Amino acid sequence: MIKKSFSYIGVVFLNFLSLLPMQLLYFISAICYYILYYVIGYRKTVVRENLVNSFPEKSISEIIRIEKKFFKYFADLTVEVIKMRSISKKEVQKRVKFTNLHLVEAYFSKGESVLACTGHYGNWEWGMLALGAQLSKKAYVIYKPLNNTIFDDWFLKMRSKFGNVGVPMRQTLRSLASTRNEATMFCFASDQSPVRGEAHYWLNFLHQDTAALLGLEKIALQTNRPIFYFKLKYLKRGYYEVDCVPICPIPKETKEHEITDTHFSFLEQIINEEPSYWLWSHRRWKTKREYAS
């Protein structure tokens, strides 16, 4: 009961913060950066380890530069996500621009469905929110529910305010079946970590042995729906561009694990171009192959 009360208080506080103008939120973000990085050291060890292992060719000074830039962006990302609660459709469309969305709409115009994937790169939350405001058909966004149901409900309402439908990961097949007669887009986070016992495929990603989820590939092979990658680019503070890149037009013509290898390779290329905007604080490599089964 006490935990639930604190959760409700937290939601009220976040809703209040969301009403503040972006300029003030970015001022708060700058303060949070110094606290997170220099005072608390939030997951600093995790971030440093991930960066060192991912970029063995870089010097420690280069690693620290990326690390600091990441934490500055992470603070910005946090206030941008909070702003989702009150941001208007017009504002999010101004801040997130899409290129090549017409390629997706071309399938919709023929009554066909598509699949999409992206990584935890840049402000993927704003990207999905803006997608709901732009797309002519419904986007079903697969997500991993939070343990705290109050905050999970808060996030779900924010994410679906412009038409997206949130689908808990374990309900993906049920949602696919219930929408098979309509043109839709199902969106996957391509860099989610499998839980122990579900890590059945491993690949080399950022110089590391990495467990990969096969859900996107399995569904693509079952449905033969074309796959797009949403390549998000950071333009400047609070502004992004999302390029809708077709990466697999005919899934049934691919070899085993080719789809999974392709979208991980695409994400790796994006990260290598500008590393600071990926979610380095995530314990992406906590599952080891020898302990996976």
Word description of this protein:
This protein has helices at 2-18, 22-40, 44-54, 60-83, 89-95, 101-109, 124-134, 149-159, 172-178, 215-223, 258-273, and strands at residues 96-99, 114-118, 139-143, 165-168, 185-189, 202-205, 208-211, 227-236, 239-248. The protein has one domain (2-291): Glycerol-3-phosphate (1)-acyltransferase (3-Layer(aba) Sandwich), CATH 3.40.1130. It contains eleven helices and nine strands. The longest helix is centred in the N-terminal third of the chain and has 24 residues, at 60-83. With 293 residues, the chain is an alpha/beta fold. Strands 1-9-8-2-5-3-4 form a seven-stranded mixed β-sheet, sandwiched between helices. A two-stranded antiparallel ribbon has the order 6-7.
Summarize the structure.
By secondary structure, this protein is an alpha/beta fold. Helices cover 48% and strands 17% of the residues. The protein has eleven helices and nine strands.
